[in-house]
Design brief:
By secondary structure, the chain is an alpha/beta fold. The chain has helices at about 25-35, 70-80, 95-100, 100-110, 155-165, 175-190, 205-210, 215-225, 230, 255-275; strands at about 45-50, 65, 85-95, 115-120, 125, 130, 165-170, 195-200, 225, 245, 245-250. It has a seven-stranded mixed sheet, sandwiched between helices. Strands 5-6 form a two-stranded antiparallel sheet. A two-stranded parallel ribbon has the order 9-10. α6 (about 175-190) links the parallel β7 and β8 (about 195-200). The N and C termini lie far apart (about 55 Å). The protein binds iron/sulfur cluster. Iron/sulfur cluster binds near residues 18, 122, 203 and 204.
Length: about 280
Amino acid sequence: MTDYRDYLREELFPQMWCSGCSHGISLGSIARAMAALNLERHKTVVSTGIGCWGKADDYFRTHVFHGTHGRALSFATGIKVAKPELTVLALMGDGDGVTIGGNHFIHSARRNLDMTAIITNNFNYGMTGGQYSASSPEGSITTTSKYGTMEEGFDICSLAIASGATFVARVNPYHVTQMDKLIAEAIAHKGFSVVEILSNCPTYFARYNQKASAVEMMKYFKERSLSRKKYDALPEEEKENYFLTGKLHQVVKDDFHKKYKDLQKRARETAEEVS
Ligand code: SF4
């Protein structure tokens, strides 16, 4: 197996994230997944948007593309369509991924292009000062909702499944081995795969809501994350207090490129018949 450090630009460490932020754990996990799959660095592209997690591309020793807010998937789509032989990852936060970039997310899922979206969900816009996002749970205290948000937050994994993603998983920063394994599975999956990483923002969301330190947040994620069997056994009214984690969905379907090749073949045959 390749050394995961080969995929990281360790000379740029320490990372820019706040102490206690879980983004460093996610970064290491993606690098370990790349190493486990023995990905060739010159055939791997990491696309990012804007936000704290959007800075992750700084630390990968692969090809990287740092784009605009909410557009990591659109750039990733262009890269993958032009060069299908590349392994393409789009890294987004919840703001980037399902708020400002929400439309790109659902259409990427239904298109089933063979790439991986990794969304670190810390339930708020960290980089711009802790405003609420489309994944902030109803009632969340943020810098733009001092009396609690009025809207329900997206369940990112349910949104991905409903939109057509063919591999969907949710992980947390405490169960790192599971995170490594599922990110590697998502990258290896043929089709559009999504991994939601429940993430800790101790500077804003955790401080305003759970009133917890980074260590307490790790305990919180550990205790509140349940496998499908345990989650389904909970009384309905209890479920909103827990996270369903693990691999939640995987189906085998033709990906975008397979359908595109089939379409080209049909068009060529029709053209030959007509001529
Ligand atoms: S603001 Fe929040 S998400 Fe951003 S680096 Fe700090 S702790 Fe992490």
